[in-house]
Amino acid sequence: MIPENTTIVKQAFFHRLKKVFTSPGIILSAFLALVLLAVLATVWLVYRAVDLPEPNIYEIVPGATSREIAYDLARKHIIRSPDIFNLYLSLKNMDTQLQAGRYEFPEPRMSLREIAAFLTSGAKAKEVEFTVPEGFTLEQIAALLQGKGFFNFLSKGGSASGGQFSNLEGYLFPDTYRVYENSDSGDIIEKMFRNFEKKVVLPFASEIENSGRTLPEIITMASILEKEVQTEEDMKKAADVLWRRLDADWGLEVDSTLKYEIGGANPSLTYDELKIDSPYNTYKYKGFPPTPIGNPGLKAIMAAIYPEPNDYWFYLSKPDGETVFSKTLQEHNFNKAKYLK
To answer: How far is 57 from 38, CA to CA, in rounded Å?
Structure first.
């Protein structure tokens, strides 16, 4: 049995203790201590430099809010706390100063404060503009980009990530592009390929399906038309000629596919070149070459989808570029003797 006086002492002790810890002064002190800890933690997060992930590049997309940017930075392990980042921007009146663009961080280690200052400084990468003409090959695109300061671009035979576009030739849409000067080849390829999807695949999927041809067949045909004839009208006529030759199990017998394989600027093929054993030699092998022979524009693609029906089976290009069509081999040989002396 506990003595009565002991119980009284304990009760008095706990009562006194309760008064101490519930006194306004103690509560205020505890609250201030917690606030101080929170402030110190915030300052630590703001000023402590951290290692940035490779590559040290970040892109702010147009229309993104400061909150969206903050959480994206956190997802990519560039900052630790998106809420502290947002709070810092608000306190510094920087939340409306974030500018869309591609940024390359100047240091491998930066603090949240330095990252915020950099992303609101407008020190984004400069843009470079280039135009890819219709019919350009991967090698020609690579040379064009090298002249703009972009190196290591894919050459002939470069591949995408599998599927029916496992070879990029033919699927980089000719157009005018603006890219950041610190873009790598993957960024540029992605931009050009997505443009191809936007300009060709999405709007003409049903037309291609209704044509009875596959997309690779359409693009390969269009790439040949770009090299073979000059005008849109002649492209449509030549497309009908070549489709019918394929359907009749004839050889395409076009110079452009073999020229793609051997390269060079010679406008005509030699007798020895015509005997080259290559799947791109459509004088020797029937059917299409293994890949498109360039990146066709929309006019050639539309000509491949919508050929103009005619009775011709042959054609040739005069030295001035004009296309001459023939219905018979005899007529074609006569035109060769007349125009290609």
So the answer is: 31
Question: Alpha-carbon distance 22 to 226, whole Å?
Answer: 87
DSSP letters for 170-223: T-S--SEEEEETT--HHHHHHHHHHHHIIIIIHHHHHHHHHHT--HHHHHHHHH
Do the beta carbons of residue 168 and residue 157 sit within 8 Å?
no
User: Where does the chain have alpha helices with state H?
Assistant: 4-21, 24-47, 66-75, 82-91, 112-119, 138-147, 185-196, 202-211, 215-228, 232-247, 255-262, 271-274, 298-305, 329-339
Distances (CA, A) of 156 to 102, 143, 263, 284: 29, 12, 11, 22
- What single DSSP character describes residue 101? E
Superfamily for 50-119? Endolytic murein transglycosylase (3.30.1490.480)
The span from the CA of 254 to the CA of 243, in Å, is 13
Nearest-angstrom CA–CA distance, 184 and 151: 8
Single-letter amino acid, residue 14: F
**pLDDT for the residue 165:** 46
Q: pLDDT for 105-145, tens place per residue?
A: 888 888 888 989 889 887 777 788 999 999 999 999 999 99
- Euclidean distance between CA atoms 223 and 291, whole angstroms: 9
Neighbours of 32 (CB within 10 A): 10
Percent of the chain with pLDDT over 70: 81
Per-residue model confidence (pLDDT) at position 216: 96
CA distance 2 to 78: 63
- Segments making up each domain of the chain, as ranges: 4-46, 50-119, 131-201, 213-339
pTM for the structure as a whole: 0.72
On the CB side of 136, CA atoms within 13 Å amount to 19
Place of tokens 């018979």: 328
Read off φ and ψ for residue 340, nearest 5 degrees: -115, 45
Q: What is the number of residues in the chain?
A: 341
